[in-house]
Amino acid sequence: MNVINLTYKSANCFLISADDGWVMIDTGWPDTFSQLLQLLNQNNISAYEINYLIITHFHPGHAGLTQNLKDLGTNLIMLENQVAFFNKLNLFYKKNPKANFKDITTSNNIILSDYDSRNFLKSIGIDGELISTPGHSDDSISLVIDEDCAFIGDLPTYSMLEAYDDIVIEDSWDLIQQYHVKTIYPGHGEPYEI
Questions:
Q1: Which of 38, 97, 102, 113 has its Cβ near the most Cβ atoms within 10 Å?
Q2: Sheet strands side by side (includes 192-193)
Q3: How many Cα neighbours within 13 Å face the side chain of 126?
Q4: SS (H, E, C) 134-174
């Protein structure tokens, strides 16, 4: 699978190809849209080619440019358990307006159940699934590509399981491993093999 890593301000954003364009995983910080556009340009990709967006969890460094992309026609894909959380990010930035954050709206949102995500992703050319992987936050999800890789956001690394001693994190990793992934793409830091 072709994965393009767009890293800036310590946050990883990833692009993977779909049948009709690109799927982006996470967006980075608010008020950095020009940096994102520059990184896309360096990879000969137009922001208009990003047809779908997946946010691993609705924290500022991962969802800060969500609405900027939606304004260009990008569809936000969410699992049902994430719906309540994007509004919390909106409320946070109403209290902290310095970051030039754009409220995330309900338009162009595709809301899926865990079960529906496989069928939807298949319809756009991706063999994988969106799964709920709490541990960093209650709305954390991962995109797993069958027998290939997983995009995990801020789920603590597999090598740190013993240090956390947290059954929620262990359960999330047990679920990820059921897909026989080899490469992990975290929200911060370098990809690693598992």
A1: 102
A2: 128-132, 141-145, 149-153, 183-186, 192-193
A3: 27
A4: CCCCCCCEEEEECCCEEEEECCCCHHHHHHHCCHHHHHHHH
pLDDT tens digits along 146-155: 999 999 999 9
Write the pLDDT tens digit of every residue in 16-57.
999 989 999 999 999 999 999 999 999 999 999 999 999 999
Contact 51, 17 (CB under 8 A): no
Q: Which pLDDT tens digit goes with each residue over 64-83?
A: 999 999 999 999 999 999 99
The alpha carbon dihedral of 94, 95, 101, 107 has a sign of negative
The tally of domains found in the chain comes to 1
Phi and psi torsions of 93, nearest 5°: -80, -15
| Number of CB atoms found within 10 A of residue 15's CB | 21
CATH of the domain at 90: 3.60.15.10
Give residue 1's pLDDT. 83
Query: Is the pLDDT assigned to residue 115 strictly greater than 90?
Result: no
User: Do 136 and 105 contact (CB within 8 A), yes or no?
Assistant: no
Q: Look at the alpha carbons of 29, 185, 109, 131 in this order and tell me if their dihedral is positive or negative.
A: negative
**Which DSSP string corresponds to 4-35?**
EEEEETTEEEEEEEETTEEEEE----TT-HHH
Write out the residue range of the structural domain in which residue 115 sits. Answer: 3-193
